[in-house]
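Exercise 7b. Backbone tokens:
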């Protein structure tokens, strides 16, 4: 029987951040959710990786899940999110960890590695949103931001009604349902912050990220184009590219990709052990 995960929290700049810990030991992996989702979307992956000897920490970023939801756009810049991941490592007293995540979480992980390389042992980058996706992201998020702002009263009524409905206990369904329950002002703050801040390190900065990286992409999504994943794998000096069959594979038929991630983590930790012995 799978052991239950443990809940934790810490505070930075007046904002309380919630996280879950799956498994134990020194092999720490921080895995981040996508935009307007939360830790629940990665729980199955966390449990599976914990069963392979990893301690997997799922952080709810500000504005998401059980964490506080500040209304200031600056709190939701991706570089601000990246600093909070480092703060989480400090809170957990972890010197180096593997960082990763899906979509938004992948881009934040790249910023963590670019800005605090000494804290990152490796990266798992699932469906990064980079240059090829930028026009589609702008076409999607800018109208969504405007619509959410100007239709806030009606959307707030919908979100209030949605909170009263029982959850389905189906992870992906609940994640979409959970996004509907967010207050429109919280959604506006998150989208505003993401649109005004940096999305990812520059190409030159990526070339200086020398930690091992596993990049996961797929071919059926304009917002997460396989071209972005492929180029990122070529830009990072120590990256491996794995093609997913679909955007949902790791959530609904996870065995193949989970095995790829677990094997990658084993290689990262073996490299970390060799580096410690060489000192």
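Sequence design result:
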């Amino acid at each position: 029987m799978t052991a239950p995960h443990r809940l934790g929290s810490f505070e930075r700049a007046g904002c309380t951040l919630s996280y879950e810990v799956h498994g134990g030991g020194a092999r720490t992996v921080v895995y981040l959710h996508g935009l307007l989702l939360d830790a629940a979307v990665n729980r199955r992956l966390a449990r599976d990786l914990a069963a392979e000897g990893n301690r997997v920490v799922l952080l709810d970023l500000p504005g998401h899940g059980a964490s506080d939801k500040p209304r200031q756009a600056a709190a939701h810049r991706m570089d601000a999110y990246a600093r909070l991941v480092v703060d989480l490592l400090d809170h957990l007293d972890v010197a180096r960890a593997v960082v990763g995540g899906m979509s938004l979480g992948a881009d934040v992980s790249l910023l963590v590695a670019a800005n605090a390389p000494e804290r990152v042992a490796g990266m798992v980058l699932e469906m990064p949103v980079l240059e090829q996706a930028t026009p589609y992201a702008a076409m999607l998020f800018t109208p969504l931001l405007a619509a959410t702002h100007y239709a806030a009263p009606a959307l707030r009524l919908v979100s209030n009604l949605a909170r009263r409905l029982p959850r389905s206990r189906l992870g992906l369904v609940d994640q979409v349902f959970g996004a509907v329950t967010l207050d429109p002002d919280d959604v506006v703050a998150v989208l505003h912050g993401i649109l005004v801040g940096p999305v990812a390190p520059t190409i030159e900065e990526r070339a200086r990220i020398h930690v091992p990286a596993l990049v996961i992409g797929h071919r059926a999504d304009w917002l997460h184009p396989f071209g972005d994943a492929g180029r990122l794998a070529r830009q990072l000096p120590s990256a491996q590219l794995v093609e997913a069959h679909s955007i949902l594979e790791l959530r609904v038929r996870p065995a193949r990709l989970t095995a790829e991630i677990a094997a990658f983590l084993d290689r990262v930790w073996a490299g970390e052990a060799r580096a410690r012995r060489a000192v």
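Instructor comment: Residues 6-130+198-272 form a domain with the Rossmann fold fold (CATH 3.40.50.1820). Residues 35 and 104 are 6 Å apart (CA to CA).
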